[in-house]
Specification:
There is one protein chain. Helices cover 28% and strands 12% of the residues. It is built from five helices and six strands, in the order βαβαβαβααββ. The chain is globular.
Length: 176
Amino acid sequence: MNYYKNKKSVRDIAVNGKIVFLRCDFNVPIDNLGKITDSKRIDESFKTINYLLKNGAKLILCSHLGRPKGTVNPKLSLLPVAEYISDVLGEKIGFSNDVIGDSAKEVVNKLNAGEFRICILENIRFEPEEEQNDTDFAKKLASYADVYVNDAFGTCHRAHASTEAITHFLPSAYGF
């Protein structure tokens, strides 16, 4: 039995002109000074990120960092990740201080307006609804995008809002 027979790769979906919600695994070690000490997981996502950008997509990147258990912890912010990606790609990256609040809506609106091609939402696990696989929360995440791509293979076994529930509301595929 071919398990992947009914699964779609990022190569199997049209992304030109679309906004892609890309679930990544940016759970990387960050030291006390806020510096990434091992970027391997981020670097692994560049193949999918670059493929999507090359094929005309705009990206909303989403990830967790650590285990904040549904509470905001500034030490687990994805801001250092956003800065790293911006440096590597040499382009401006939008960053949202929240996941579904006013900051996220503002950043997604700027993405839609063409101010940048990539934005990153704050740590998805700052929201308790993420680990609860909350359907309403997943609908809000899905409302930002046209397509969902899971590139977070280390987390796809978890039934969380950004890995499972969101797939019920958007055409979905897996990344590289």
